[in-house]
Protein 1
Amino acid sequence: MIRLLAIVLPLALVGLGGCPRDPEPPGSDGGACDEGSSTCGSLCVDLASDPENCGECGARCEGSEPYCAAGACVEDCGDQLARCDGACVSLASDPEHCGSCDHVCGGDTPLCAGGECASRCPDGDQSDCGDGECADLQSDPRHCGECDAACAADERCEAGECVDDEPCKADERLCDGRCVRLASDAANCGECGNACAPDESCEGGECSCAGDDCDACEVGRTDCDPEPGSRECRDLTADSNNCGACDRRCEGDRRCDGGECRCDADLVECGDECVDTRIDRDHCGGCDRPCDGECDGGDCIVDCGDGRELCFGEYCADLESDRDDCGECGRSCVGDEECALGECVVECDEGQEPCPGGYCADLESDRDDCGECGNACVGDELCVLGECADSLPVFCDECPCDDCPEREDPPRRCCEIEDLVVCLAADECPDGDGGGDGE
């Protein structure tokens, strides 16, 4: 339902920190947001990791830096954080992504400790940092050394200290705490964690067979390298560059899910785009529903200002002067009509009057508008000076009218009406004046 309110900041996807995903007021208890979360519009978000509100409300991460870490948009989350729906999160301590993306802790085990849901934080190396997080203060970049002491986007946490995340050489990458050459490391070939098979070697960042006789890819993976003697094993059910088939890439914000390119759970597919219909002004509350104001939780919030009204929840109109919304939304003036003070009117020539429907009529002679708009004469009647007459009058210079044709029933009467002398078929003249008898 569209609401007419003051313009507010755009809303975004709910981030981390335990904020509810339903349209309840901020905070898990219906009050203020939980500690570590901020209010954006009517939702609680984690400005440190929410890609739709990264660092501040409405700051979206996109393009070459699509992920949010420590309140900054980054190209990659690094090796200490995982990518979950555009957010850089700690799978070891985040109760919304405990051990894996979207694995939510709750019930009797609301806390996340070491990647597993727990009822309390274990003694020793885990600290209760609130919001359901049990963090290792020695290695957690969101709680480095102490709770809520987050490292910068280009830093990592080592021994409770934030250090430069690029300790490696230019041709190396930090993977699991050590610097490796992705071009030749068989355990991290091309990217961290991409291990080559035992009979393969890593050359140029790709796993290749040592000889011509190569074993097949492991179960669940497909060889996408057509060159003989080499192998590129890919999971076609989850690889966004080889989704459902080799070299079939998922475009835009789509990811590979079960071999199909799909939008993330919080997004809606509108044409070729994955959009958040809760905040997208072109698709507010659904695909192709433009909003002139701000889109807040799928509702279009428009401040039309003085003298204008919100029509159908989509646009503002001046009901006093708008031809398409004259007097009320959707009421259009027709023909030559213009909207004046909420009424459709038309300017007419001298001797004519405007009639509803956008046309002008001579009320003294128009058979369809005789005397007043819409008053139609019937049968053979004609309109004479605003009155429906039985037959065509003959205008004379004086009475009696020699031009009055003979007619027995009723007889014609020569009548003086205003400045005219006419011959009518009537017992009496319309204004009661007498006249000469007809022939």
Note: Residues 267 and 275 are 5 Å apart (CA to CA).
Protein 2
Amino acid sequence: MHLTRRSILTTGISAGAVVGAGVVGGGLSRASAAAAAPLAAAAQAAAHVQAQAPARVASFPVGFSLGSNILWGTTTEIDQTLDITSYTGGTIVRLDIMWYWLQPTATTFDWSRLGDMVAGAEAGGLSIFGIILSCPAWAALGGTGPLSTTRPRTAALYAAFAGQLATRYRGRIAAYEIRNEPNGREALAPDPDPVFYAAMVQAAYPAITAADPAATVVAGALGPAPATPIWLICVFLFEFGAGLGLIMQVVVLVVQNSVPATQVGTATSTNNYFREVGSALGVAVFGALFTSSLSEKLLAVFSGAGASAGDASQATATLDPATLNQLPQAIQDQVVAAYADSLAPVFWYLIPFLAVAFVLSLFLPQIRLSDVAGMVARGEAVTGEEAEALETEQREAARVARAAEPSHAPKSRAE
């Protein structure tokens, strides 16, 4: 069988999506904080392990990659983009820092574009993760472009600019990436050079950290290259599809495109019915396995901390985040480990079901997706001359109705 790029892409994503879509989620109900007394007893009994730790607020960084196009915007446009990033919960922005923009000649710098971006990010409480990209003509290998991809003549030139950048924005840019996807021509034209790239990293790292010791410096992430084997691309696509399947209802598309247009509603509702029943059954069965294992592990944690059997049992039954934060740090860590150790086996139990779903998906016939709306396919839509005639009729009816309304002429000033 001949595999085209499109067929590889479709097969990889679809296979992963079917597996991902089969994962059954579950949730745990949170107990009332009013029943915290048994936990307090358990915490007091465990005081010999560690002094009680203060409550902590967990933070979860959320990043947005803005690229370099934002640097072309006005100050207002930059601020609007950053405001949206902050509003949606972002905490860090990934930004392309274009060397050839900022240092057009060996002795001149123009920081205006980047300066607006940094100031806007600071105002919005956002950290910056900058990728130092491109190369100005005066520093490029051979003295020519394309400037966005050409490698510099020497690693020292790149490191010198990186040091200047870190000096100017010390404490204001949190992290730096040394180019991106350096194994491709798009990053180090004319050809990838691992030895030269390693020299760039070795030269840029001390230059940046000397100027800003608090900054994080990372090497560029690798990307697919022309020599990447097909099997590895398929693995990557499968992984992507497994994640996509969790949010994209692949089975619904299969069902809707397997029946005539007049039966789409029935087919969709039938699929939803079995999905709801299956979800409820899955949560009940696998949730029971999880909670049973968790209860045993939590009993062991509280009993080991010195609580009586009764207090340990009540503490296990009434545990919630608020009371958990009141426990000593050592006990908190053991509780977290108990949750992790109880949850992981549940996913192993799901593997046989996912394997069966994956095998069954291989027997699904290839069906061309519908390219028309449901009403059009069912002959219910009004189109063409019929639509125009209907619109004309509606306008005429509206005109007649307005003409039939009583006149409401304004009264004269004399009245």
Note: Residues 63-231 form a domain with the TIM Barrel fold (CATH 3.20.20.80).
